[in-house]
Write a structure and sequence with these properties.
Blueprint lengths: L4 H15 L4 H20 L7 H17 L9 H20 L6 H5 L6 H9 L4 H22 L12
Helix pairs in contact: 1-3, 1-4, 1-6, 1-7, 2-4, 3-4, 3-7
Length: 160
């Protein structure tokens, strides 16, 4: 069984970073959309055996969100709403995989890092957000590959 706190937290931070480049109203709408998406995800049942798909979706969404810090004009309102709802849905689904939905109470407030991120962008220090996004992108990419490729020690084999 895998812990769901780290993927959900990384997903929420990955949403906060591109929201630092958006307007305050767009960021607020995206945060609300992520909360709504997370609430909806907690209502959806997880079919047995779909944990790998959910973790892969979470890591892929993290990759997409972190790549959005490189958009030349930042996120538009419609894109921010869609990405916020998407992040909330995956975060809500991933915390259900290990039965600790309370991890969402720790992960979701990390979306509010968009406030200091916005301050960094206004102070013309937005490059720091791009560096952090690059690290999150690397971690998400490696985790997604580990999810897709059976690695000795992570999966039961003929010796178990």
């Amino acid at each position: 069984m895998r812990d769901s706190l780290l993927p959900a937290a990384m997903l929420c931070v990955s949403l906060a970073l591109p929201l630092g480049f958006a307007t305050a109203r767009t960021a607020a709408a995206a945060v609300a959309a992520s909360l709504a998406g997370a609430g909806l995800a907690l209502l959806l049942p997880i079919p047995p055996g779909h944990e790998d798909v959910i973790f892969s979706g979470c890591w892929f969404s993290t990759l997409i969100l972190t790549a959005c810090v490189h958009l030349p004009r930042g996120l538009a309102r419609a894109g921010a709403l869609a990405l916020g709802a998407n992040a909330g849905l995956w975060a809500g689904q991933v915390v259900q995989t290990d039965g600790h939905a309370s991890n969402l109470l720790i992960a979701l407030p990390l979306v509010l890092l968009c406030v200091p991120a916005r301050w960094l962008v206004q102070a013309e220090r937005g490059i720091a957000l791009k560096v952090v996004a690059s690290w999150l992108m690397a971690i998400a990419g490696m985790e997604m590959v580990l999810t897709l490729i059976p690695t000795p020690g992570y999966m039961p084999d003929h010796m178990d």
